[in-house]
């Protein structure tokens, strides 16, 4: 225990005289052995958001349809017409549609 206290103290000469382990400003981009492009220039793959795929359904015009909440349980006090009305799907708002287009790029 005393070894660690002496070694890890900020006033220890080992820590104060040490050089930084990694200088990020001098770092060169990595180049793959069989590729002519730098690995920093390669873009990430677009992936769809899995839970959004299950909840929102795109139509041909680019709008998204969703189910309404409030139909699964605790609805015995609702009238039959209200429960039937909740069964219909509705379209999302324009603000939600903009976010969904980012979450579902291939929809």
Automatic annotation (TrEMBL):
Signal peptide region: none
Pfam families: Ribosomal_L35p (PF01632)
Entry keywords, A to Z: Ribonucleoprotein, Ribosomal protein
Family to which this protein belongs: Belongs to the bacterial ribosomal protein bL35 family.
Alphabetized InterPro entries for the sequence: Ribosomal_bL35, Ribosomal_bL35-like, Ribosomal_bL35_CS, Ribosomal_bL35_sf
Stated name of the protein: Ribosomal protein L35
One GO cellular component, as annotated: large ribosomal subunit
GO terms, molecular function: structural constituent of ribosome
GO BP terms: translation
């Amino acid at each position: 225990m005393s070894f660690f206290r002496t070694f890890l103290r900020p006033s220890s000469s080992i820590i104060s005289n040490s050089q930084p382990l990694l200088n990020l400003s001098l770092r060169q981009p990595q180049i793959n052995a069989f590729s002519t492009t730098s690995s920093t220039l390669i873009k990430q793959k677009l992936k769809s958001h899995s839970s959004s795929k299950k909840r929102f359904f795109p139509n041909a015009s680019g709008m998204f349809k969703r189910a309404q909440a409030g139909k699964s349980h605790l609805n015995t006090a609702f009238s039959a017409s209200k429960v039937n009305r909740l069964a219909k799907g509705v379209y999302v708002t324009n603000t939600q549609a903009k976010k969904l287009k980012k979450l579902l790029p291939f929809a």
